Amino acid sequence: MQAELDTAIKLNSRAAIEILQVGRDQTPVVVIDDFALDIQAVIAHASQQTFTPPSEAAYPGVRAPLPRPYIFSLLDGVFKLIYQLYRVPAQLRMQPQNFVYSLVSQTPEQLSSRQRLPHYDSHYPYHFALMHYLNPGPHGGTAFYRHKPTGFETISQPRRVPYIAAVQAHMAGYGEPDNAYIHDSTDHFEQIGQVAYRSNRLLIYPGFLLHSGLIDTDSDIDSNPATGRLTANLFIEFR
To answer: 149: cis peptide before it, omega within 30°?
Structure first.
């Protein structure tokens, strides 16, 4: 319990904040470098956890719960920015969805067809993903994509059914994606932006934006929290 209590972070008042405008839709993506003054306690806490495969099939690795002091201190530092930048209606309140450490552990041969494509987290417009890169690199970052057949970069509720139908039609006509993690543009998806991995970099983006980890098979497939691509992933909604 004491180890968890020690994981609250102090935000760096000199952190560098950059707002990227991604794709034709100019969707804002927040990149904050040197986000916390010290993340060593959080990394040390991760090394003491038991990582297990998630119940959902989308994530190609293992996960463990994040400590509550870390969650509260991180969200307290960014929720006003999210409200303002993404124009979240003032009457909506932040609600937790999922808070986990993540480590990539699946080889390309173990991936399902779904895991070889970019994905979205939610079609709800006020759902957000926050990713805090923790361990020192080098590791692969995160990329964003446009679906070529539809031109969709974000998958809102009205786009969900036609998007899924178009993906299925493309695979029926051209075959399943290569047995590999997606990186660059393909005949199916166009990469429209990326954010490199850097320890203590915080990334914030809407959950309906198509994205994928840029997984380096030489350095990232590692379930050891001391050496792997350790990230803290926080998912929130405003309802």
So the answer is: no
How far apart are the C-alpha atoms of 96 and 99, rounded to whole Å? 8
Looking at the whole model, is its pTM more than 0.90?
Answer: yes
Largest CA distance in the chain: 56
How deeply is 67 buried, as exposed, middle or buried, from its count of CB atoms within 10 A (0-12, 13-18, 19+)? buried
The rounded distance, in Å, linking the Cα atoms of 130 and 72 is 13
Alpha-carbon distances, residue 151 vs 12, 29, 99 (angstroms):
38, 19, 31
Tokens of 136: 């020192």
In angstroms, what is the C-alpha Rg of the chain? 17
The string of pLDDT tens digits covering residues 60-86 is 999 999 999 999 999 999 999 999 999
Rounded to a whole number of angstroms, the distance between the first and last alpha carbons of the chain is 31
Q: Facing residues of 204 across strands?
A: 30, 130
Sign of the Cα torsion 37, 43, 46, 52 reads positive
Give 26's contacts (C-beta < 8 A, 6+ positions apart): none
d(CA 47, CA 51) in angstroms, rounded, equals: 9
